[in-house]
Structure formats: structure tokens, C-alpha cells
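ERR on first pass: missing label on line 2. Operator R.T. fixed the label and resubmitted. Corrected input:
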Amino acid sequence: MMSEEPIVYTQGLQKIFKDFWRRPRARAVDGIDLSLKPGEVYGLLGPNGSGKSTTIKVLLGLLHPDGGEVRVLGRPPRDVQVKSRVGYLPEESYLYPYLDARETLRFYAALFGLKGELREQRIDQLLDMVGLAHTGRRRVGEFSKGMARRIGLAQALINDPDLVILDEPTSGLDPLGTRQVKDIVSALAKRGKTILLSSHLLADVEDVCDRVTILYGGKVRASGPIRELLQMANNLQIKLGDLPDEKREELLTALEGVLGTRPDIEPTRRDLETLFLEVVAQARRETGEGSGTREEGELAGFLQ
Amino acid sequence: MSRILPITLLTLRSILREKVALCMLALLAGVLFLLPSGLEGDGTLSGDVRMYIRYTLGFSALLMAGMTLWVSCASIATDLTNRRLHMVLTKPVSRWQLWWGKWLAVTILISILMTLSGMVTLWRVHQRVGEESLSEHDAAVIQQTLITARTPVDVPEKDFREEAVQEVKSRLESGWLPPGQMTEEEVILQAVLYLRTLEFSARAGEEASWTFALAQPVGEGELLQLGLAFDGTSMGMTSLQGTWVLGTPDAPDLAVIPITGSPSGTEVFPFNEQGEFDGATSITARFTLDGEEGRMVFFKPATGVRLYRPGGRFAPNLFRAVILYTGLLALLAALGVATSGMFSLPVACYVTAVFLFMQAFSGVVSEVIELESAALTREDIPAMERVLRETRVAAFKGIQLALRPLRLGQPLERVASGERIAPGEVAGTLGLRFLPLLSVTALVGGGLFLRREIGGAV
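pass 2 clean. output:
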């Protein structure tokens, strides 16, 4: 079996911030090894200041590494050809406030050399996908943080990238937006895209990532497939369907005989996100759309 | 180019939508429309028009330089501060393309504003002249003295060194001692400056004369002009009275121009309206200053007394100057964009302003070098002082060398004084001086920007 070249590869990556006199001020990244395979969703976790954003900026060619090796899509990260295959959503959506949503996407599309019908089609699909098709001539400077994040996400996907780097993608989004981002990430991964996701919202990462690396103080503290990392070998869970009371009692008695103690039993709960999504979906059916974002559309056609 | 254009359009859009262009237009409108209403000429139409041309072009030049400095310095620095470049530079755009895109936007903007400024000036001048019901003769005089281009007759500059050496020698022989610890070289240099000033001065009761040899004889009906730049205020004069007598070597008294009024200024006097100088190959100009003994008036050395011949129409001349000045501003924009990619907005503005300041005062640099070099000929200077002076001279020579290609002689000012700017000068300056300088600035600025890390402060 042929080994596939990693989409992102770092070996002993180091980044040291220096002061005006070139004296080391902070070792932000200290010997990080990463290897992202095609089609996987990779999570970069860590508290604030752990080196997540710095690592991402090195991968994007914004910062120069002080040591180690970095390859993105098999080439140095500052290579313009690499950049044409990468989509990036920064931790804050640094948009031009005087442009409207369509102009913003048109500008970024032009930087990728997209023109004419193809460009307009993609913009239509992306605006529809992120629920901002109705914003018209409103400038993005007037957008809420969540709306700006959505535009940020749309611009990150305009070039149909092979590698998508998302820095805190769900920050500022409501649960609907958060769910949608996770759905998009999953859908893109199914299409063979590689996603590098940095976040400190652990639930989001757990939902979508195949593998994670946990950073602290610029160093890798844990790394591996998320299932393996979360697995607790000595703690088991039995999932049961709907049981009549007498059957449940019968089962508990049998288990008590085997275990020596009567096990705890409680009904399965939905998580809050699922409940919220159901309530909002119901409300939408009853009252129609609000003034902010509208119900998101399907994944953009060109991304499917 | 396909990546440069979106950057250029975005920058222009930001200038338009963030009201920068509106502010610039408002300031320019102030200079072109409001400023002239506050100016008071000498009450004559020609005085008003001359003042309008001089002040509007002068202030437009100053304003445009300031605007170019601000917009170019903000071009990259603001995007870096707002972190918008984080998004742009992760796209397939090289930093060179970003640099050129920003520069192109600033250059397009200043070209539009400079053209607009030139067009409004031209329109206002013609409108002002058209308001008055002038006789055919007066209209022709204004047309030929103000709304025109003229070329000065070249006069070879006199070398006063030999004369100065003789003067110093004879004074030393007669027992005169130079002041302080001046060396012979310093004394000679002072004597040269003194003789040069004397050559372009006139004492009351004495006749000062100049001769202009013409390469081509005066054509039939060709209107000649005597241009004067003078100052009598240093001798305490509050008004000036005198007489210019113009002629040819064979007929020295063909025209008389009485002078009266302000003791300092720049004036142009037309002559040969009757054709009395037609066919002349040499013109003489004699000046007698009226008043008591001791009164003196100084003309600007070399350019204070000039003979002008017609050099074409005003409008093309104005636009050649606009092109030349726009070229200079484009170069300033390149420096602004370059510093903008390296420093924060205030530092970028400061660095570019220093350049602008030095460019404006590049003439002073030559004088400093001349004086410091002369002082170095002293043998009794302490070693430390000598080193400091030598360092200063070397630094100023470096500055002089760097600024040499930029010495334009202020094209808009030249047009305001009616001086013709030849098309060849425009092409030569843009092609042989500005283009190489622009390339070097882009190479250095873009190269340093290429090395800069983006988003390091985390």
C-alpha cells in the first residue's frame, strides 16, 4: 500500500517571538510535529496562548518558522501555488467594512483568479449556504459578529480548497450557525478535503474531528485519534431502547445478581444543542424568518 | 496583473467609501475656489490672474504632496493594524503584487486629482480673463504675458573665481586681515559670493547693465518679456523706483520701462509691442535705481534678470508640468507605500515627510557642502572637529547624491512664472530619472515587506 503524502507536515516546528533587539521574548511554538492525512478533520486544541494560532500562521506563511520543517500540500507554505489550494478563516473575521457581502466575496474570488459566471455562481451558492443571500447592499461593517463569521467562512471556501484551516470557526456563532459549521466540516471531509480546526470549544471538536493534538506552552501534550484519546477502558455503558417497567425491573435484578450491587439507571437525555435546534425549527415554521441570518441553505453546489 | 488589479480597485474603493477622497476633493476645492477669493491683487486684471495662477498652483502642489504622503503611508499600515492583510496574504497574492496594487491605486488617485486641479485652474483663468471686456490689445498682452509659456534666453554664468582671487590678493597686499581664523579658500569663497551678489544688484544713481545674446533673431511682432526677481527690503527700502532702458547694442534706447511699487517681488514686463526690436540678435537692459545714495536693490543671482521669448501655449505647458509633478508624487507614493509596509502609520508618515522636506530643501544641501568643505581647508581645526565636519560633509554629499534625480525646480512654480517646460524634459525626467528610482524604491520597499512577518504580536 502506497503511503500518501501528508497534506500538512511539520517536524520539530519552532517559533520564537523576539524583541526589537532580536532577543528571544517568547517561545510560542516549541518542537511541534503534525501530519495531516488527506480527507481527515484534525483538531488543534489548547488554552489561550498555547501556540495554536501561531502554528496556523506559520502554516499559512504569515510567520516564518525559527526551526524545524514545514510543508503544506507538499511545498513551502509561502508558495503562492499552495495558497491557491488553501482556505482560511481567521479567529476574527477581518473584513473590509465598506464592502457588502457580495463585494467581499467578489474581491476574494478575484484574488483566486475566479471570473465571470463561475465566480457569480459560487458567490450565490455560498451566500445561500451561510444564510446571507438576503443582506443585499448592507455593508459588512454593519454585520453582527455571527454574520461576519459566516462571510468569513464563505470567503474561506470560495476557491473550493483542498485544505481548509479554521481558527475558532464557531466563535460568535449561535447554535444554529455552530451546527451548520460542523455540518459543513463533515460534508467537506466526506468530499476528501482536509480540515485543520483550531478551537477551545471542546464539544465542537469532539463532534467533528478524527484526530486531535492538544498543545500547552507551545508543546504537544497529547495527540491521536479522538476515539482512542476519549476511550475509558474500565467504564462501560449499555444503551437500551424503550423498556416496559416490569422488563426493566427484571433486568436490574439480574444485573444485581451478577454485579453484587444494584446499578444506577436513568433515562437518556437529549443534549441542549439538539433541543435548541428543534425549538428554533418549530418557531421558524410558525413565525417565519427574523432580520438577521436566514435559514441556511444546502452545502454550496460546487462544494458537493 | 490579474492579482494587482483587485488590490488596486479595493484600495480606490476604500478611499472613496471611507470619505478620504471626499475630504481631498473638499480641500482641493478650497484651494481652487475659496483661496482665490481671499487674495488681493494689485487691482489690475493681469495682477489678479497672475496671483491666482501662482497661489492656486503653489497651494495645490503643497496640498497634493500632503495628501499623497498620507494616503500612501496609510495604504498598507492601516490594513496591517486592522489585520485585514491576514486574510489577503493567505490568498495567492504575492507581496510584490500587493505592493504594486497599493502604489497603483495611490498613483491613479493623485493623477485624477492633479488633472482635475490643472483643468479647474485653466478654466478659472480663462473665465476670469473672459469676464472683463478687454480691448484686443489688452487681451493680447494678457494672453502673451500671463497665459503663455516662455523660454528664458540662456546667459552663460560668469565665473567669479579669478576676479575673487585677484580681489583678495590685492586686499591682503594692502595690509587687510581676514576676519577670525578664515583660511584663504574661505575668504575666496566669500569673495565669490560677494561679487556674484554685486553683479546682480543696482545702487542708486549708478547704472547696472545686462546683455542677452539671442540664438535666433527676434521675429516679426514677437513679444519679448523682461523678467525680474528682486529684493530691496534688506537695505531698508519700503518702495522701489527706477527705470529700465532696453535696446540693442546699436540702438540702446529703444524702450523705457519705469518701475514703481513694492521693494520686492517677481515681475514680468512685455516689450516690442511696436516691433522696434524685430530682427535684433542681442538685447541690452540697463537699470537705474532712483533715490538717495546708498539705496540698493538685489536681483536673484543668475535668474533675477531674465529675457524671455515666447515658448508656446499655456494649457499644454500647464499639463506638462502637471505630468511632471504627478511623476514626482508617484515617486513619493512609492516611498510612502514602501515605508507603510515596514512601519506603523505615524512612523511611515514621519520617514516620508523627512524625504519630502529634504527634497524641497535640496538646494540648501549644496550650500552646506560648499561652506563645510571650505572650512575644512583650515589647518588649525582640532582633530575631533575635523572628523565631525568630514562626516557631516560625507553625509550631506550622500544626501545630495540621493536627491539629485529629484531636483525638478518645482514644475508648477515654473509654469506659474510662465516658464516653458519642454516635452523632452518631461519624457527624460519620467523615463530616465523617475522610472529607475521607482524601480529601486519598489525593489527595496517590496523586498523588505516580503521579509516582514504578519500577525506576530499574539
